[in-house]
Amino acid sequence: MAAFSRFSGRFIGLSGLALLPLLARAQPGNPLRRLLRQDTVLAPVLHEARAHRLQILYTQINRDAQGQPHFRTYRLRVRPREYFYPASSIKLPTAALALEKLRALSAAIPELTPESPWRIDSAFAGQTRVLRDTSSATGRASLAQYVRKMLLVSDNDAYNRLYEFVGPKALNEGIRRHGWHHTVLRHRLSVGDQDPGARHTNPISIYADTALQRPLYVQPAASFEGKWPSVRQHGRRIGRAYFQGSQRVEEPLDFSTKNTTSLPDLQNVLRAVLFPESVPASQRLALDSADLGLLRRYLSMAPRASNRPRYSPAAYPDNYAKFLLAGPLPTGVQIFNKIGQAYGFLIDNAYIRNPDQHVELLLSAVVYVNSDGVLNDDQYEYDAIGLPFLRRLGEVVYAHEVKRAAKSRK
């Protein structure tokens, strides 16, 4: 596998470059605190960083004379053991692990591809069936179509279907295998999924034809009977009250049975997709160039650029799933990212590049905006504080990188 060349958009080898330890002590010259302090949008959030559960992970990418990337990481309040709800940010590792599973199956079933048509049935309370997918060119569901929808507009049903395909046991085994040690996936999204339903997965059949006449692979309903993986994290009881339906409960909301991750894990997943040879060989994704190309394409594509699925630009503007550098992008800028938004948490995990300016960086951040301390009341300060903060963070760090690149070329 290979990594992006910032100059041509092609990929180049990295000859065994090891993954830098993202949890090591911050290096001298960390610019993050200074950049935030001197900005009127960023400084107030920095001043209340603990209340906002703020974490920022910023990795500079420097190319040597051979074009090989070298990574230098800076941190601001990066605390892998401080809980934040990951929301949709965990869809990228799920997509990668689903493609890994299909790649392994195709070794014995060569006809099996990400575009092969799916049929999903139900076998447990709360499960739903899928026979058709009108968003696809074939009218049928497929792994590739779920990946597209998940990365283009953060579709929750698409994530749920890949959760069902891989299964919670294999998902969490894959997470451990790739070294994402603070991540646990234990439920579907937006359907109230919890035990025992979260342990049960739907029957899935994958076919050679859109008429669904010739099955290539049949996966029966399954259940996970083991113990859920756990990670040591604090702060899982959040807020002072929450709504359960229309009823207000006067105690913190307990997130101990929900998905979890860390900012270093999220950035390492992105590196595994974009810079595979910067990851230790034992932890690399078992994906071929077509699999990686699918992920990369839809991590960076604007919804309006997609033909199938098709999205209305009015409903899904270019910045629909872009928090860092949201809005009209500077000329030449391309962003590969995955966001998350729920319960007052906003997350963006991004690779930003501008070949014309010789700029490329990884920037990942989480911020919590819920001043009244009540969850599920839809009174979060996303528009007033969270989204302006992340947009300005991207602008400020990108401007810093432009200046740094210009200085290095002198």
Tell me what the structure shows:
With 410 residues, this protein is an alpha+beta fold. The protein has helices at 32-37, 43-47, 91-106, 143-153, 156-166, 168-177, 263-274, 289-300, 382-409; strands at residues 3-4, 11-12, 55-63, 69-76, 118-120, 200-201, 204-207, 215-219, 222-223, 237-238, 241-244, 247-249, 253-254, 334-342, 345-354, 359-368, 374-375. The protein has two domains: 3-86 and 261-299 and 310-409, Beta-lactamase, CATH 3.40.710; 88-254, no CATH class. It is 27% helix and 19% strand. The protein has a five-stranded antiparallel sheet, sandwiched between helices. Strands 5-7-8 form a three-stranded antiparallel sheet, covered by helices on one side. α3 (91-106) packs antiparallel against α4 and α3 (91-106) packs across α5. The chain starts with a strand and ends with a helix.
Overall average residue pLDDT = 93
Strand elements, count: 17
Residue runs with pLDDT of under 50 for 5 or more positions: 5-24
CATH topology type of the largest domain? Beta-lactamase
Pfam family, one: Beta-lactamase2
Protein name: Beta-lactamase class A catalytic domain-containing protein
InterPro entries: Beta-lactam/transpept-like, Beta-lactam_cat
Organism: Hymenobacter fodinae
